[in-house]
Amino acid sequence: MRIAVPKEIKNNENRVALTPAGAQEFTKNGHQVFIQQSAGLGSGFPDLAYQNAGAIITPTIEETYSKGEMIMKVKEPIEPEYSLIKENQLLFTYFHFASNKPLTEAMIKSKAICLAYETVEKDDKTLPLLVPMSEVAGRMSVQKGANYLEKPLGGRGILLGGVPGTLPAKVLILGGGIVGTQAAWMASGLGADVIILDVSLPRMRHLSTVMPKNVKTMMSNEFNIRHLIKNADLIIGAVLIPGAKAPHLITRDMLKEMLPGTVLVDVAVDQGGCIETCKPTTHEDPTYTIDGVLHYCVANMPGAVPYTSTLALTNATLPYAMELAQKGWQEACDKYPELHHGFNIIKGDIVYQAVADTFHLPYVPVSYYLNHH
Ligand SMILES: NC(=O)c1ccc[n+]([C@@H]2O[C@H](COP(=O)([O-])OP(=O)(O)OC[C@H]3O[C@@H](n4cnc5c(N)ncnc54)[C@H](O)[C@@H]3O)[C@@H](O)[C@H]2O)c1
């Protein structure tokens, strides 16, 4: 198969959909890889590394798109790319259709096959191509929080782990899923006192058996939250209710109860945030302060560490991409049934119920395409 990897052109996106190691796996298996000039540079992979792996460097985005039977990307195509996408081309990338009507309409018109990373879903409801980015954001939330707790940056001026003879910082984590767990590992590793709040008892049972002694779990409810925020130094928002906006667990009035210089990192900002006063910020201007409480709410945290994020993402995508290249998109589902859920639009038909419902457009079950080959 011919696999093409365009350079990401969305603002501040430095990730790339394929590493030189991935390119080598494809070429070794008899596939051709076309990668746009400098596509890997933002993640630290020069063109030469891809060439050494057997890939062909294409000078322009137009040429890159024109070469591919499968297009591998990170972010959804943006407007200038719409006209480059052809009928029957397989696009494997993050799309997030439900929040983007122009993109949905453009992909319907293109008659391409759109396989969305974010909806690839296993039987146990886990999302294997979203997990790596949650892991990155979770670990990073503590790194950022520790940094902003420094006085010159607006924080309380407390070192996360303290030193002998002083108490460590108190870290409160709302939600003990992927983000919350990774945040807890980082914060506890630095010596902080950590409390994870969740509503799932099975989840907290699991966490209490695997986490170190300086991590405690507690039931998430308003009573406990109001009590704990009074002396927390760093609060991390990591709640997710699948398919819904995050609930506001910390409301505006609660900020007054907090210590001045408390740092809030709301990782759930991309789902509306679990802190009422949270609004999306960017890496250029990541923080703002309300009532003496510092807010960090960057909606695309993994974008700041493209090297790690690219490797983490491609570790997860490559096995699927390889099967798609070897067998084609219909038969690839035999080995990886979770790909079924990944198809959102096929040859002009919306095959993902939630996207069809969002835009009140007709829905065709994906089985129509998968059973007719
Ligand atoms: N900002 C970023 O760059 C970035 C990157 C990756 C993920 N995220 C976001 O981070 C959030 C968390 O993602 P995740 O992968 O950890 O999700 P997850 O599903 O693994 O975990 C969510 C957890 O929240 C818990 N929860 C639900 N309601 C709760 C409540 N009322 N109180 C406390 N806990 C509650 C659930 O039981 C679950 O354990 C999502 O909104 C995700 O989109 C943001």
Describe the overall structure:
Helix 6 (131-148) crosses helix 7. This protein starts with a strand and ends with a helix. 32% of the residues lie in helices and 16% in strands. It contains 13 helices and 15 strands. A hairpin with a 2-residue loop joins strand 12 (287-290) and strand 13. By secondary structure, the chain is α/β, with parallel strands linked by helices. It folds into 2 domains: 2-119 and 306-370, Rossmann fold (3-Layer(aba) Sandwich), CATH 3.40.50; 131-298, NAD(P)-binding Rossmann-like Domain (Rossmann fold). Nicotinamide-adenine-dinucleotide binds at residues 133-134, 137, 174-180, 197-200, 203, 220, 238-241, 246-247, 249, 267-271, 299-302.
Descriptors:
metal ion binding; Rossmann fold; globular; seven-stranded mixed sheet; about 375 residues; magnesium; about 15% strand; oxidoreductase; Ala_DH/PNT_CS2; alpha/beta; single chain; binds nicotinamide-adenine-dinucleotide; eight-stranded mixed sheet; metal-binding
**SS content category:** alpha/beta
N-to-C CA distance: 18 Å
**Biggest sheet features:** 8 strands, mixed
Supply the number of structural domains: 2
The CATH class name of the largest domain reads: Alpha Beta
Name the CATH superfamily assignment of the largest domain. NAD(P)-binding Rossmann-like Domain
How much strand content do the residues show?
15-25%
Gyration radius (Cα, Å) is 22 Å
> Architecture of the largest domain, according to CATH?
3-Layer(aba) Sandwich
Bound molecules: nicotinamide-adenine-dinucleotide
β-strand number: 15
At CATH level 3, the topology of the largest domain is: Rossmann fold
User: What's the SSE pattern?
Assistant: EHEHEHEHEHEHEHEHEHEEEEHHEEHH
Domain Alanine dehydrogenase/pyridine nucleotide transhydrogenase N-terminal: 4-137
InterPro entries: Ala_DH (IPR008141), Ala_DH/PNT_CS2 (IPR008143), AlaDH/PNT_N (IPR007886), AlaDH/PNT_NAD(H)-bd (IPR007698), NAD(P)-bd_dom_sf (IPR036291)
GO cellular component, one term: plasma membrane
GO biological process, one term: L-alanine catabolic process
